[in-house]
Specification:
The complex is a heterodimer of chains A (125) and B (107). Chain A is built from no helices and 11 strands. Chain A is mainly β. Classes of the chains: A mainly beta (125), B mainly beta (107). Chains A and B meet through strand 5 and strand 10 of A and strand 4, strand 5 and strand 10 of B.
Chain lengths: 125, 107
Amino acid sequence: EVQLVESGGGLVKPGGSLRLSCAASGFTFSPHTMNWVRQAPGKGLEWVSSISGSSNYIYYADSVKGRFTISRDNAKNSLYLQISSLRAEDTAVYFCARSVIAVAPAPYFYYMDVWGKGTTVTVSS
Amino acid sequence: DIQVTQSPSTLSASVGDRVTITCRASQSIGTWLAWYQQKLGKAPKLLIYDASSVESGVPSRFSGSGSGTEFTLTISSLQPDDFATYSCQQYKSHSYTFGQGTKLEIK
């Protein structure tokens, strides 16, 4: 079964840090671009960051640039998000999502077909 | 960045109704648009990709259309399981953007 399982969320004070993890199983992890998407309470989905299969291409939303770092370990079938300098507005459920492998002329960063159940990050003093 | 605007934000309908949700992009995105369904407390589920391709396993009552800057998601005959929030997402740009979501409620 294709599966993504996030972990690492929790309650953290403003200015604090956390490392989120996403364990992938049931598919060949290394070729797929992987993503983090978050959803604040009562709000819509917000793309956070993406990383290509070989980690050559990495992108961040402006709202997290300089504070969040995405990485992956293909040997461990795992995706990570180091989140630092946390603010109240970072409070959200953080989802890990797999991008479908694109075939030209499709965009390299293609749509997301598999999502994890999410891990909750709460930033509060 | 490409902005994506969905309408309406809330839609009240009854079982058996035909409903349409619209998504507009701030610039042309070709057909690089997906639709997701999300139930409360759950992960998004892919319904439509490339504007009109239905994901495997998704009921045939769901369809998508459009290109350029205007797109629609249509549910031909609402079923009780369809009451959820629907979001569109553009992927023409590597900076993905989502619509703000449409909550489909029971009338």
